[in-house]
């Protein structure tokens, strides 16, 4: 089962006994802060959980899988996730 944003809101509402609208605002604000930070090229570290790293990909040669034609892929940014040692230990215990 996949954990959705709505599931997170429901869990926060259940645990903190706050109005649902306020819980939605909390989750939306958190995600917006993370998006803005990563958009500026900075990494996001959540202690005990992991680190969202922004990586720069250079221009490279690729291939169109449907036609087989060679093409150049534009430089871009990607986000990777590295889990913390605590989370890794919890997953493997």
Automatic annotation (TrEMBL):
Q: Name one GO biological process term.
A: positive regulation of metabolic process
Q: Which UniProt keywords apply?
A: DNA recombination, DNA-binding, Transcription, Transcription regulation, Translation regulation
A single GO molecular-function term is: DNA binding
What do the Gene Ontology cellular component annotations say? cytosol
Q: Which InterPro entries match?
A: Hist_DNA-bd, Histone-like_DNA-bd_CS, IHF-like_DNA-bd_dom_sf, IHF_alpha
Annotated family: Belongs to the bacterial histone-like protein family.
Q: Which domain of life is it from?
A: Bacteria
CDD domains for the chain: IHF_A
Species for this entry: Desulfonema limicola
The name this protein carries in UniProt is Integration host factor subunit alpha
Q: Which gene encodes it?
A: ihfA
PANTHER family according to UniProt: DNA-BINDING PROTEIN HU, INTEGRATION HOST FACTOR SUBUNIT ALPHA
